[in-house]
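Q: I'm writing a short explainer about DNA 3'-5' helicase for a general audience and would like to include a description of its predicted shape. Could you first generate the structure from this sequence?
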Amino acid sequence: MVDEFQDSSEIQFNLMLLLAGTDNICVVGDWKQSIYSFQYADVDNIREFDNRLHRFVDELNRDAQRIAFSPSRAADKRLTRNYRSTQSILDFSTHVLTARATKSESLDTEAISEEVTPLEADTDHDESRIEALTSENEHEAILEKIDNIVDNDDYAVEGDDGEYHAPKYGDIAVLTRTRDFGRDLLDTANAYDLPMAYEGGIEVFRTDAAKLLLAWLRILERNADRGWALVLEEAGYTIDEVKAIIDRDAYPDAMVTFCEELREMETFGGVARRVFDRYDRSGPTADVVLDTIQSVYSTTTFTRGELIQFIEAAIEDGSTHEVDAGAGTNAVTVQTIHATKGLEYPIVILANMNTNKFPSTGGGGSDIAYTDPIGLRHRKVYSVEAHDVPHVYDNWQTDVLNKCLPPNYDEERRLLYVAITRAESHVILAGGEDPNVFLDEVPVDIEPVDPDLSTFEPIEDEHSPFTVDIPEPDGPARYSPHTFIDEAVFEGDTGGRGMEFGSEVHEFAERYVLGEAVDTDGNHDKENVKELLDSLDGKTKAEIDAFLPLTVDDKEVTIGGIIDLLHITPDQIDIIDYKTDLTTHAENEYEKQLSIYYHVVADQYPDREVTASIFYTNDGDQRGITHLSKSDLREMVRTHRV
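A: Of course. Here's the predicted structure. Afterward I'll give you a sentence or two in plain language.
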C-alpha cells in the first residue's frame, strides 16, 4: 500500500512497480490535494491510475521482463467520510475547485464537478462561521480578527473532552501562500505583543533585520556605499538625499557615533544585538537571525568579511531555517499552506488572498508581475519588417508573459482547497487592498475592515519560546574555539578595543611576516608586534589553519581555528596568539583556544617541544599558558553539548 499517492512522480510510480514484488498493489490518494508539482509530483498518477499502470508496466517490460504480472483493471474504492471538518466547510471547499483564478480564465466547471467525490462530515454539530475580510492594513486586520475570536463563544471549538468552548490563541492557525507574508505578520504580532509562532522554514536573511545587519557590517568592513545607502533610506532620506550624502561623505552625526560604538564591540553577536536594539528589531525573526549568525560564527573561523559573504550568499539563495514554537504554548500558529499538509486546526485564517500572491505570478519573485487586464493574447504575428521577408513570427512578448504565468491554475485551486480543509470548525479568508479573483469567486460575503488595535490587551505570559533548527553538517561535528569561550568576559568595560582594531593589528602582523612593505603608522601595538617578530631567530608562519580531531563519547568532533603565528626552530615550536586587550581579564578563556592549537601542533611535531603563549600587543607582554589536556578538551565539548 502506498499512501498520499497524489504526491508521487512518474519515476516513483515506476519504482513502486519495480519494488512491489507482487500484483497486490493498493494506492491511496486524493487528487484534490496534489500540491507538490514543484517536486515533480504528477496528479495524473492518481487521476489516471489504471491507464498509467498498464502503460508503465509495458514500458518497463519493453526490452526485458521486469514486472512479472500482467495488470488487470484496478478496482476503485471511493472514501466519502471526513473526520475533520464540518459539512459547511466541506461544501464550501468544493466551490474553490471551480473558482476562476483570473477574470479571463475559462473553466469547464461541469467536468471538474463530475470528478469531485462529495464528502460527508462525521459530525452532526455544525455551527461553522465562514467569513471574509479585506483591509488596506491586512496584518493589523488579521490581528484584530484574532483578538475578536479569542474567548468568543460565537467561534466555539471542540475540546479534547468533546465539549465546546471559546477558542484560545492556540486554536487558531494563519495560513499563507508565501513565507514572506507570514514573516511580516509575525513581526507585526510581536509589535502588539500578540502571542504568535511561525512553524516552518523562514528565509531569515531576506528579512529586514538581516538586511540592516548586513548594511552595518558592510560599513564596518569597508565603509561601503551599499551599506550607507540602506541605513540612510531606513532613516527616511530620499534617493537624491542619500546620493548627495554619500558623495560628500557627510553622514549624520548620530550615525557616525553609532558606527563608532559598533567598532568598539568585541563580538559579532554584540554587533548584531546593538543593531537590532537600535532599530527595535527585537522580535522572533531577529532572534532567528542572531542565533543563526552566532551558530555560524561559533562553528567556523569566519572573519567579518567572510560573514558578510555568507549573508550575501544566503540572501541570494533564499536559504531557509526552521523556526518552531515550543510545545504546549498558547500561541497562534503561522504556516505556509504547503507546510500544513496532513495537519488540522480548529480555526483557519487564510491570509494574503491578494493579486499576484495567490495565485502566485509564477515569475519566481515580485520583480515581474502579471496583471490580468494587460495580458497579451496573440501567440503568432505576421510581419514584413523582420529581415525584410514576410513571415509568421512567434510573438516574444507572449513568450515573456507565459514565463510569468504558471502553466495552469489547477494546482493553485487545489492549494486553496487544502488550506480550507485544514479547518475543523471555522474559516476566515483575508485579503489586502488588491484582493485576488478567488475571493470574488467563492460564495462568501466580504467585509471591508479598518482595524483599530488601540484597545488590544494580550494575555500576559503567553509568549511562545522560539528555537532555531540549524541543520547538522555531514561528517564530524565541527566547532570553533570561539564556541567554548564565555562571551560574558567581554561584557562591560573590560579594556577591549573592538574587532576593528584587533583586525587591523592582526593584518599588519600577517603582512609583516610575509615580507610585505608595511608601516606601523605610529601605532604602538603594531610597533610591539614588529619588535617581537624582529626578535625571533627561527622560521615564522602566519595565519595557519589548525584542526583538532577528537572522539567524545564515541562521536567524532573537529575543533578548528587559526593560529596567529608559529615560530619554528630545530628543537622547538612556539605558538603565539596576539591579543589587543588592555587587561588580562580573559586569559583563562584564551587558554582554551591556545590549548586546542597546542595539541594540533604537538601532534604534528612529536619530536619537538611545543609552547603556547599570548602576546599582549598593548604593552608587549608575552605570557605563557598551561595547556589543557585532551581529556580536559573532551570534557569541555561534552559540557558544551549539555
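A: For your explainer, you could say: The chain has five domains: 5-77, 87-201+327-364+408-448, 204-319, 372-404, 477-641.
Q: Perfect, that's easy to follow.
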